[in-house]
Amino acid sequence: SSNSIILSFSLPAVSCIKFKDALNIAVGTSTGQILMFDIRSNKPYFIKDHNYNLPIKRIDFHTLNDDYVLSIDKKICKIWNRHT
């Protein structure tokens, strides 16, 4: 008989996407994180967590200062700087 170990993990689903411009994209997840990507890289350059484990419903960039990001889940709307 052989012993086998079954590893199980799940990745969060994408719940919303918003392009900032041609190279930068914000991805909201089903587990409440926002990942900021430069599309030339496969790794996010910034991750923000809402800390409620609820799906992100919407992401927007401020119209006058696109360093500020608005992210919304079922419980809260956060406004944050995408660099800090």
From TrEMBL:
<protein>
    <recommendedName>
        <fullName>Nucleolar protein 10-like N-terminal domain-containing protein</fullName>
    </recommendedName>
</protein>
<dbReference type="InterPro" id="IPR040382">
    <property type="entry name" value="NOL10/Enp2"/>
</dbReference>
<dbReference type="Pfam" id="PF23098">
    <property type="entry name" value="Beta-prop_NOL10_N"/>
</dbReference>
<dbReference type="InterPro" id="IPR036322">
    <property type="entry name" value="WD40_repeat_dom_sf"/>
</dbReference>
<dbReference type="GO" id="GO:0030686">
    <property type="term" value="C:90S preribosome"/>
</dbReference>
<dbReference type="InterPro" id="IPR056551">
    <property type="entry name" value="Beta-prop_NOL10_N"/>
</dbReference>
<dbReference type="GO" id="GO:0000462">
    <property type="term" value="P:maturation of SSU-rRNA from tricistronic rRNA transcript (SSU-rRNA, 5.8S rRNA, LSU-rRNA)"/>
</dbReference>
<feature type="domain" description="Nucleolar protein 10-like N-terminal">
    <location>
        <begin position="22"/>
        <end position="83"/>
    </location>
</feature>
<dbReference type="GO" id="GO:0032040">
    <property type="term" value="C:small-subunit processome"/>
</dbReference>
